[in-house]
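Q: Got a minute? One more chain.
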Amino acid sequence: MSLVLKIATPDRFIFRAHVLNQFLGLNLLLTVLNMSDLE
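A: Always. Here it is, folded:
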């Protein structure tokens, strides 16, 4: 239960969301670059 509470704290959630957004943004950029290279 303590692990769930740690993950659910606002600061940790915001940090995780920020990292996830950076990761998804990088994946999207790489995908677009790969698509343009294929064409």
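A: Residues 8-38 form one domain.
Q: Perfect, thanks.
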